[in-house]
Amino acid sequence: MIRRRSTPWIHKWSRPLIAAIAGCGALTTGYLTIEKLTGGSAACVAQAGAKGCNDVLSSPWATVFGQPLALFGFLAYISMVIFALAPLVFNSGENNSRKQLENWTWWLLLAGAIAMSVFSGYLMYVLASQIKAICPYCIGSALFSLSLLVLTIIGRTWEDIGQIFFTALIVGMVTLIGTLGVYAGVNQSVTSGTPGQPVKITFNSKGDPNPAFGWEVTTTSGEAEIALAQHLAKVGAKEYSAYWCPHCHEQKLLFGKEAEEIINNDIKVECAPDGLKAQTELCKAAKVEGFPTWIINAKSYSGVQNLEELAKVSGYTGPRNFKYFK
Questions:
Q1: CATH for 223-325?
Q2: Of all residues in the chain, what percent are helix, strand and coil, respectively (each to 5)?
Q3: Is the pTM of this model over 0.85?
């Protein structure tokens, strides 16, 4: 009597598990897509003055071909759900047709998981080295992609292991080259300040700040920065800051000298007791815990905000060719 080999549990449940993980990724990226398209702010807990999820969403890396990067992530996860469940849902009576569908979808799952893992790896590098922010959504998506790759590899019996490595090499190289090509303009603007592209702002404090104005603002404003500052003043936005705060100065650099004059006259609230025109009671009443803190339309935003983010949360509809980002 010949005993049939039992099917490992992981082979039985690999497709449902892949679909479940991809579904979680779709929910995450779908939520971020909605927030990006509607101008909202993603729910994200971050320390005052530290960069978080919304800094990532407002960075140049968060937009591809004029659309939110999260939208492409959502489509990728939905595709993985379809590839995983297709043989289970479309269970035709013909055995050969089912086997062909299973085989093709496994290869599509493998190629998709490799591409998503390589792309997520690049984004993790950008997150750590360029944006320097903590984004649980981004980290979670990277873990989802890696989990999909592991489950795809161990979720079935592959007849030719060499084909897996060959596929990984080809798909990985194509994905990496394509990713570098898509972000070539962003990377160039960060390093050389390409005309028409935003320039990354960094600030290393030198010397003691002046209680009257902190450190000197060395950047200049464009029409978009000035228009945004005027709009923020019009809607009654407030920026709570302290003259000695490096992050507050970084916010000034994003606006530039001319726009900062508008911010300083109509929007800024000085919270340092020894600062010029200090309004410490207003800061206490607003329950400010860190600098800078923006209050726009009765909502609080902690830390340095990219101008694109301020434009969204304040309902600004003017020009958005901002010169700098952080």
A1: 3.40.30.10
A2: 60, 10, 35
A3: no
